[in-house]
Model the fold of this input.
Amino acid sequence: MFGFLKKTLKKIIKPEKEKKIKKEKKEIKEKKIFVKKISEKELERFKLELIKANVSFEIAEKIVEKLKEVDKGNVKKILENILFDLLKQEKFDFVKFVKDKIKKQGFGIVVFFGFNGSGKTSTIAKLGYLLKKQKINVVFAAADTFRAAAIEQISKYGENLNIKVIKHNYGSDPAAVVFDAKKHIQAVGGIVLADTAGRLHADKNLMEELKKIIRVNKPDYRILVLDSLTGNDILEQIDKFSNIGFDGIILTKIDVNEKGGAIISVKQKTDKPILFLTTGQNYRDLEEFDSKKIIKRLLD
Ligand SMILES: Nc1nc2c(ncn2[C@@H]2O[C@H](COP(=O)(O)OP(=O)(O)OP(=O)(O)O)[C@@H](O)[C@H]2O)c(=O)[nH]1
Ligand SMILES: [Mg+2]
Done:
């Protein structure tokens, strides 16, 4: 995913030194790659590479500031430390959270929201699949009553996964759809995963509508779904939805954005945990966020 970081940093190592080590003792090559003080020009180049990899400008600057402090050392170790610092978060076990909620109050409501096309509906299907495997009763609430074919899309997922879908007609009040789903789940026990319509910056009405869904139904957990291909705009999206309030994040399309710079930007922007990454179009393509695993994948 982040091989680019290592590659770029390698590019800006003084080549003479590396060659010398290679000649003298081949086996040392892998273990010890020394960097000399990195020049301003090289750091600028590195910053551009980060931005190209969807790391936001602000965060790219931060990383470069950290690199300025580096005199010499092992490239892998240096990057490992920088990334570890950038990606660390307290572990949050979402499945356990759901199980505990159900144990305690008999049911739970989770609402998903985010920008248009960020991957909300397909992520709900993936989570539905995961939770069902854990023997949890899952119900989908088709509260995107706005976009054409949205109700059909989630109904199809429900049909494939054998998950009940609570739905109303297009144009109806999405808060009422979630309310109905809540009533149902209170009676039978389990978890509601509520889909909502995609929102844009300028969609004042849809933002108000989302506030209403939350106000009326008081969900136990609110998930912001972000597309990892978004680039710099991802920070603005986090700002927009911070006004509404969210508890955790799911980052989608990591398989497409091989460089994965968005993960770094998101972690720097908010303290809220990244719960999962989605890595493809199948129901199984959902990975728990694990910074150690990510760093290993980035650098190995
Ligand atoms: N490759 C890949 N594609 C994904 C992933 N997640 C979602 N997609 C695709 O992204 C597109 C949009 O996904 P949806 O789940 O419909 O997104 P949405 O946020 O519900 O979209 P709206 O309801 O229109 O706002 C679909 O074609 C998905 O198959 C992923 O992890 N990897
Ligand atoms: Mg959708």
Observations:
- Residues 3-87 form a domain with the Four Helix Bundle (Hemerythrin (Met), subunit A) fold (CATH 1.20.120).
- The longest helix spans residues 174-188.
